[in-house]
Automatic annotation (TrEMBL):
The protein's name: PTS system galactitol-specific enzyme IIB component
InterPro entries linked to this entry: PTS_EIIB-like_sf, PTS_EIIB_2, PTS_EIIB_2/3
Domain PTS EIIB type-2 per the UniProt entry, residue ranges: 2-91
Pfam families: PTS_IIB (PF02302)
Keywords: Transferase
PROSITE patterns tied to this protein: PTS_EIIB_TYPE_2
Record organism: Listeria cornellensis FSL F6-0969
SUPFAM superfamilies the record matches: PTS system IIB component-like
One of the record's GO molecular function terms: protein-N(PI)-phosphohistidine-sugar phosphotransferase activity
Gene Ontology terms describing biological process: phosphoenolpyruvate-dependent sugar phosphotransferase system
Length: 91
């Protein structure tokens, strides 16, 4: 099964909110994926087994998997574009 990682500073409030929204959006579109919220400090260990990364904060480095703008999922601005990127990443 595909895996999406959502990371913020603490891995609690913001990333959990975005992870829930991403999970709901994927389910509505018939896409099965595990969506996991983590803190930014543990991102490197989780990124290796993930198919896409939804970033709440700006990452200090580049990753080899698609990285999406998590703020779009919070505000709704530009969200459809990010959803399409996510769907493409999970195909």
């Amino acid at each position: 099964m595909k895996k999406v990682i959502v990371a913020c500073g603490s891995g609690v409030a913001t990333s959990q909110t975005v992870a829930s929204k991403v999970e709901r959006i994927l389910k509505e579109r018939g896409i099965r994926a595990n969506v996991e919220a983590v803190d930014i400090k543990s991102l490197d260990q989780h990124i290796r087994t993930s198919d896409a990364y939804v970033a709440i904060t700006k990452a200090n480095k580049e990753y080899d998997i698609p990285t999406l703008n998590g703020i779009a999922f919070l505000t709704g601005m530009g969200m459809e574009e990010e959803v399409e990127k996510l769907i493409d990443a999970l195909k």
